[in-house]
Amino acid sequence: MDLDRIPQHIAIIMDGNGRWAKQRGKERSFGHQAGAETVHTIAEAAARLGVKYLTLYTFSIENWDRPSDEVSALMNLLVNSLEEEIFLKNNISFRVIGEIDKLPADVQNSLNSCIKNTAHNDGMCMVLALSYSSRWEITEAAKQIAREVQAEKMSVDAIDSHILASHLRTSFMPDPDLLIRTGGELRLSNYLLWQCAYSELYFCDTFWPDFKEEAFYKAIEDYQGRERRFGKTSEQVN
Ligand code: IPE
Ligand code: IPE
Ligand code: MG
Asked: What DSSP assignment string belongs to 158-178?
């Protein structure tokens, strides 16, 4: 791995918890618990490498339609697995994107306290996407822009891709350089659709609970072997 070319922003679709548990004859929630351990491992590894933003798809708006016992197990896990020590020890600040007001009050409280207590950390920023979906986020941005136009704070002609991006929940971060999806599925499942326009995509079969440092480094090495052209020719970018 080239330590001078670590992606600034890595986004991850943490998939495969349920299948990992099923393989072991256990309940799906057992897989989510194991997955929470992997979050700590990967957050520490990313911070150590100097990654600036780590954005983790934790719960999609579509995931609300799962059986209610699984949804409550996930909500409980959120309250119980936010370990501030790990953030403090690794100089990580914590943020969330998504429909946070839809989450149970105890979850909101524990998220808010973690955000507040880690705000001064200036190493990596770890972002959980919670009750998040990309189409929801883009629709909200469109509504906000429409309100500003209606209030005559902005003209229609001023709207461009920068204005739209600045109204997304991710406006405080650069776009992901690398998007990783574990668990073998080859789709984006409504995650960061706008932001990943030019991200390098990496898919692997490993279920999220088994995705440890080695697998993470392998994804970064793969990324470092890519040529990012952004529409230009190879000659132009070299
Ligand atoms: C990802 O694992 C975690 C969430 C979506 C909350 P899954 O729960 O989707 O696991 P699989 O894909 O069913 O194995
Ligand atoms: C995507 O995984 C959402 C998260 C990882 C939080 P899903 O398991 O919900 O995605 P689909 O249903 O397979 O597309
Ligand atoms: Mg899944």
From this structure: G--HHHHHHTSTTTTSPPPSE
